[in-house]
Amino acid sequence: MSLFAAFALMTALAALAVLxxxxxxxxxxxxxxADLAVYRDQLAEIARDAKSGRLPKAExxxxxxxxxxxxxxxxxxxxxxxxxxPARVARQVTRRRRAAAVFALLFVPVFAAGLxxxxxxxxxxxxxxxxxxxxxxxxSDVAILVRRVEEHLQKNPNDGAGYEILAPVYLRMGRPEDxxxxxxxxxxxxxxxxxxxxxxxxxxxxxxxxLVTADAARAFAxxxxxxxxxxxxxxxxxxxxxxDGRAEDAARIWSQLLARTPANxxxxxxxxxxxxxxxxAAPAAPVxxxxxxxxxxxxxxxxxSTDERNVMxxxxxxxxxxxxxxxxxxxxxxxxxxxxxxxxxxxxxxxxALKTAxxxxxxxxxxLGRLDAAEKELAVKTxxxxxx
Length: 388
Fold this sequence. Notes:
This is C-type cytochrome biogenesis protein CcmI. It is found in: Cell envelope. The longest helix is centred in the N-terminal third of the chain and has 35 residues. The chain has 18 helices and no strands. It is mostly helical. It is elongated.
């Protein structure tokens, strides 16, 4: 109730600020006073011109008479209007003041209360900060949870796990400087790791609005020194090279990163896009988990007859085709399937695989180029086989 009383008082003060100027009677200077001021200026100017000789005496006298006549006419008009004008003006001013008072004192508060009743939560109980800090944890209130962890770290400054938990939360809350400091504390207490250095570097990049600073670059270099395959650090070091104007270094770093990035990695399209931005060529992607002959298959094939080996190969090709029917966004798999059909002499199946792959990658110019190259290679091999 005290909060609503404060709001009511603030509303009353705002209305009073609007109505106070309207309640004061101000004597505005009318048109008559303005005309008299102009005529006086004209008389003074005529006197100056007559004294200096620029205006003959006869003309000066005639001008003074004309200005005096206009002044008398203005006085007469003012006297005629003075009888009815004050009452009419007073009535108009009174009506305007009443309308403004009704609007400010009634309409605005009623409208605000109705809007709050519809969109607000008038029955929601208060939640003072002190009570929220002492109440049971509410996982939806991230700010309170962060505050509690901060208080815990103030009492236990060597709790590295607390800093490591708090750092990514800071980053999601839009506090990258605090996140970088928390990661630095975690490294100091828990020791170095590629993920911690890389995460600290990313926080520093976010804090500098996307610029890879020298401190951030050192953090990424430290991460790669611990794990040469840490992808985030390689990406940002390539970005640092691009920002420094070293496009060739950026292309080399991103090309190496792309070469060891699995085809199904979620960040692979982003790396391919930045590599294309600096004019680099995308290398072939390693295919994780693609069906192919293992050591046992090779050993078994050595003891098989030709027909048995063909059956085994066709079974592997069939498994690859089946996988691509459910996971079509694997350009490497399609290229392997086309080549396999070419080796087996199934030109129709190879052509059908090329058609399906082109439909899948119709918006990917790089993939379409590789499919065209595979088709030409297939045509050359098929032609050579037919001639032999």
